[in-house]
Write a structure and sequence with these properties.
The protein is built from nine helices and seven strands, in the order αααβαβααββαβααββ. It is α/β, with parallel strands linked by helices.
Length: 204
């Protein structure tokens, strides 16, 4: 069944009261999938970790717990989502262990090689072009640093039919793998299923 367009648009850029409701639902419905991608990153105690499209920020606390001597940053293009993520993680932000920024993936406000690990869960649908987005992620990832991307592919026909194509752009697995390689990543592992999880490493 096709989702109402306004729901899909809220997932891309949440705002208002409906956006807050969507954030609450997202934090619950996608948590197991976030946890799957987090586990794949094998976060170490001193790692600096970036969550691209952090949404309501539930993953930030989990990542911070795994990196007590490191730092975790969540970014999201939605001001509302960043506000909710900030409220959720106030204590960690005050302690300097977590930060939240409003920004898209195309122009990340971080220095080259700032992060050891990068998490991207259900966000690449909203990137107009995969390669520039992944190149920017590669830029802020240390050589040898790891990225975990979790997403639904064009093979998930139910998802493709459920969301308007001008809001959600589903890609094939081959397209994502090719874009990762072009952007400067080497794919370590692909776990197909629903959703697909791809683990990749920044090449030197």
């Amino acid at each position: 069944m096709r989702r109402p367009r306004f729901i899909a648009e809220q997932a891309r850029d949440a705002n208002g009261l409906l956006g807050r409701l969507i954030a609450f639902i997202m934090a619950r419905e996608t948590w197991a999938q976030n946890q799957r991608a987090i586990d794949a990153l094998e976060v170490a105690a001193e790692d600096h970790v970036l969550d691209v499209g952090c949404g309501p920020g539930r993953a930030l606390a989990a990542l911070a717990a795994m990196a007590p001597k490191g730092r975790v940053v969540g970014v999201d293009p939605s001001e509302l989502m960043a506000e909710i993520a900030t409220d959720r993680n106030q204590a960690l932000i005050r302690s300097g262990r977590v930060d939240v920024a409003v920004t898209g993936v195309e122009d990340l406000p971080f220095s080259n090689g700032a992060f050891d690990k990068v998490l991207c869960v259900h966000v690449l649908y909203f990137w107009p072009d995969l390669v520039p987005a992944l190149r920017e992620i590669a830029r802020v990832t240390k050589p040898g640093g790891r990225v975990a991307l979790l997403f639904r592919t064009t093979a998930d026909h139910a998802a493709v039919q459920a969301f308007p194509p001008d809001v959600y752009r589903f890609r094939s697995l081959d397209e994502v793998l090719a874009a990762l390689k072009e952007a400067g990543f080497e794919v370590d592992r692909t776990s197909q299923g629903t959703p697909t999880l791809v683990e990749a490493r920044r090449t030197p």
